[in-house]
Design goal:
57 residues, mainly beta, Rubrerythrin, domain 2, three-stranded antiparallel beta sheet, two-stranded antiparallel ribbon, binds zinc ion
């Protein structure tokens, strides 16, 4: 089994390491386990996260 690539990503808000898999795709949502912030994957090369804004108000 090949070692997983280093996909450690940090939460843009608090710097905590996000638990990501190799299967992230554009449009996926990632929750920070530390601060609970949600981010959307907006690009893969390079991997880019944007704050996810819940439009329900
Ligand atoms: Zn965070």
């Amino acid at each position: 089994m090949a070692p997983a690539p280093d996909l450690a990503r940090e939460c843009p808000d608090c710097g905590a390491e996000l638990d990501l898999t190799e299967a992230e795709e554009v449009g996926d949502l990632v929750d920070c386990p530390n601060c609970g912030a949600a981010f959307e994957v907006v690009a893969l090369e390079p991997f880019t996260l944007a704050p996810f804004v819940d439009e329900e108000k």
